[in-house]
Amino acid sequence: MSATLSITETQIFTSLRSALLTFGLAPADPSTSLSIIRGQVNRVPEPAGPDFVVMWPISDDRLSMNIETMLDSNVTGSIAGNVLAVTAVGNGSLSIGAALWPFGASAPIATILKQLTGLVGGVGTYQLTTTPNAASAILYCGTRAMEEDTEVTIQCDVHGPASHDNARLIETQWRSQWGVDACAASGGIIVPLYSTDPRQMPFENAEAQFEERWSIDLCMQVNPVVTVPQQFATSAEVTAESVQALAA
Fold first, then answer.
1. What is the DSSP letter of 225?
2. How do residues 167-187 score in pLDDT, each as one tens digit?
3. Which value, to the nearest 10 degrees, does the dihedral of the CA atoms of residues 229, 230, 233, 239 take?
4. Measuring CA to CA, which residue among 102, 107, 95, 100 is closest to residue 82?
5. Model's pTM, two decimal places?
């Protein structure tokens, strides 16, 4: 049984960078370019141009309790090699990370890695983790989705002669509907909440020289979902018990 995460840290940085690229940041020298890169990467030099932005992960704070959704799904399909061929969907839909349970099995026989062809979550072919060849039959693939609403904070260090102006561009637009729309157009996985005011933090380089740097913390909401396999009962047997017999 496996778990899948809907939003990764890499996706968050990619979405933020894409939004920042629409904020009109520009180098002081028009003949140079402005780079936006991720921090905490070893053996990587600073960008060639004097103006650039470095994104650093700071915190990941829970905003609420889990929001859980369970989906009872079953499909009709056969398995050859590590490929599941689905010919009909009885209930629900298939999702990446779902475990496949034949009727009466005590454990799943495989987990879905990715969809290869067909309608999303429906009829088509899927790549599995193992190769349990099986004739066409009903396979159960229920899931439990756990959403955790979080506040993610990323520190943006804005370097270079134009760092103050670029930091002001970031802070002002991040706190506006423009920033919300920019993030929505950059994948829709981050939503601006608020930011700190820009603060001046000189940077000492390898030559012991000070470079201009302004720093600002961008706080955003991200709602990742962890999906795990979930079994469901096809029927229930109810029997009556005597209370006196149980107490004896």
1. E
2. 999 999 999 999 999 999 999
3. 140
4. 100
5. 0.82
> Is-contact 34 50, C-beta < 8 A?
no
Domain residue spans of the chain: 4-65+148-227, 73-141
1 closest CA partner among 233, 231, 228, 232: 228
Output the pLDDT for position 248: 63
CA distance 141 to 149: 25
- d(CA 108, CA 87) in angstroms, rounded, equals 20
| Interatomic CA distance for residues 14 and 8, integer angstroms | 10
Give exposure, 20-52, as e/b (b: 16+ Cβ within 10 Å).
Answer: beebebebbeeebebbbebeeeeeeeebebbbb
Q: What angle do CA 120, 123, 138 make, to 5 degrees?
A: 125
pLDDT digits (tens, 9 = 90+) for 93-112: 888 888 898 888 888 888 89
Domain 4-65+148-227 has CATH 3.30.70.1700: yes
Cβ(122)–Cβ(115) below 8 Å: no
Residue reference for tokens 């349990």? 132
